[in-house]
Amino acid sequence: MLLTNFQNYVEKFARKFDVPINGLGGPMTSSTNSQGLSIINFGIGSSNAATIMDLLSCVKPKCVFFLGKCGGLKKTTELG
């Protein structure tokens, strides 16, 4: 399972594996290749991250990788 917050990653995945994108125009677009590898664009924000993790807990994927970036503006937040 690949998680991202960039729609273009889903589009590149779909092109590479010649598969459709599910949910275009809605939240959390996704695509799955013939070997069962899926990518989901869960969007931005902690509520979306919590939602996708809650949904994945029901599916129980073997492995989850996050592709993207995250950050914050608080100066008190430490790295690590």
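(ticket continues) Second input and output from the same batch:
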Amino acid sequence: MNLPQDWTLESLGNCCKVVSGSTPRRNKSEYWNGDIDWVTPKDLSHLNSSVLQEAPEKITELGYKSCSTTLLPKGSILFSSRAPIGLIAIAGKPMCTNQGFKSLIPNSSVYSAYLYWCMRFFTPQLASQGCGTTFKELSKTVVEKFKIPLPPLEEQKRIAKILDKADEIRRKRKESIRLTDELLRSTFLDMFGDPVINPKGWEVKKLGEIANFVGGGTPSRKINSYYQGDICWITSKDMGKDIIEDSQEHITLEAIENSSTKMIEKKCLLIVVKSKIL
């Protein structure tokens, strides 16, 4: 890996303390419903932020002392090491985890937000080193030996600030799309009513009565010349937008004539029916 002059390549074990978690016994009521946040991987699965501010479950001081979990300081990186590998968040306050984590407590040379983005980026490489038959798991040793690029602290802060801003824009865009979808559904119901109960008494017809259905097909991949034309050939990879202007792949007229795919006209409705149903 070629790094800028003042950057170093550091193992996580050299710039962080790697710690595991544990679970107090569930049959001991005195161990639960305390005031110590206790995190499981599922708590990060739908997190809409880089920071976890609070865990759904909490344990008591007795519960904490009864097992080998570790109280992580604010700013630690929560990193799930199994089932699945790679769920990540920054601890927004002191908290501990179950055994599904190999969390990182950064030393003074590491900025938490930069470490968060590093782990996000390198998770696929780290996950490939997981072992196990029932499910893959990362050992503490593997995590400690994994190396990341480490620039000077001020550069870490600058990089993290840029990535945080980009992620904020992405999240806002995602939320905007969700709200737009809700508005469209609401507008449809307002105009046409619920299509199941049909309160407005609209005439109901089968799709086959109002449209012609045409299937697609795949020209032989063994004949390279079939895929050197200028006719759009749509796959599920091209879907996900309201109007398709172009496709990733293009075929020739000969390819159409020698396969089951069909030419369709402009303004036809495309529906994915297998592989990746939309």
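Agent notes: The chain has seven helices and twelve strands. Helices lie at 12-15, 61-66, 112-127, 140-145, 153-192, 207-210, 253-257. Closing as not reproducible unless the customer responds.
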